[in-house]
Specification:
0% strand; mainly alpha
Length: 65
């Protein structure tokens, strides 16, 4: 049985690419180190508070997904 669960890290990565931003750019916007940003992108789930911030930074509503 295939899961229809959303991998939020992949969705964030996709938006970064669509908007022509780099992981370094996102890390700087979030005031975190780049390795921590990569950790977010590998995560299937992240804290909703952090997702609100990422949504604001990318001007994209990940909660609508």
């Amino acid at each position: 049985m295939k899961s229809n669960r959303l991998h939020i890290g992949q969705e964030i990565q996709s938006q970064l690419e669509k908007q022509d931003h780099t992981v370094t750019w996102l890390a700087n916007q979030l005031s975190i180190q780049r390795p921590n940003c990569y950790r977010i992108l590998r995560s299937a789930n992240i804290n909703t508070d952090r997702l609100v911030i990422i949504s604001n930074v990318l001007k994209y509503d990940f909660f609508a997904e």
